[in-house]
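Format notes (please read before filing issues)

Several people have asked whether sequences and structure tokens are stored in separate files. They are not. Every record keeps both together, in the order shown below: the sequence lines, then the token lines. Line labels are part of the format and must not be stripped during preprocessing.
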Amino acid sequence: MKVTGPSGTTSTPSSRPSRSSGGGFSLPSGGASGAGAASAASAAGGVAGVSALMALQGVEDATERRRRAMRRGGGLLDRLDELKLVMLAGQDGVGVLNTLARAVREERPDSADPGLDAVLDQIDLRAAVELAKADMRRSA
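Then the structure lines:
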């Protein structure tokens, strides 16, 4: 069938030669078994290569650990800054406190840098103090 434009379609004779054989699916004979074995081995090698790449991506180097630790510390500082602004505005800041508590509970990555770890300890301590102060205000 051929589309000729907005008027519709027209039927054209097929240019394919008709097959007189019984049709159906047939496997080629000859050296196909050797090629099939080679392609199966190649596919298995490809899977092994992909799994090796995935394993390498799972290994975290020192710079990535440091980057993750800095990202977590920066996020805690952002939450503490939001809490400061909410408290200066005279609001209760329950939502900000909840997000701060959630951020403190997150696992802290080891940065392998003693200086950075000391700064992160101070940030964690400040966040814990703010959460304790908010808890005391609620209970009073």
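For reference, the curators noted about this record: Residues 44 and 75 are 44 Å apart (CA to CA). The two ends are 83 Å apart (CA to CA).
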